[in-house]
Design goal:
two-stranded antiparallel sheet, 29% strand, globular
């Protein structure tokens, strides 16, 4: 199985059920993945389309 890594906090999980609640985005042409915890914490910034470098 492939391992997913959160691009914000570095959390690592095996792909599958554990990563179903993770968020993905594309910033500057690069796919970014965020764990459920970081997604909840930075939800407003994500909805406002702010790049993760400003969180």
């Amino acid at each position: 199985m492939e391992t997913e890594t959160c691009d914000h906090c570095g959390r690592r999980e095996e792909s599958g059920a554990a990563t179903l609640t993770w968020t993905t985005s594309v910033e500057h042409g690069r796919r970014r993945t965020y764990c459920d915890s970081c997604s909840r914490t930075h939800l407003r910034a994500m909805e406002g389309k702010l790049d993760s470098e400003y969180w």
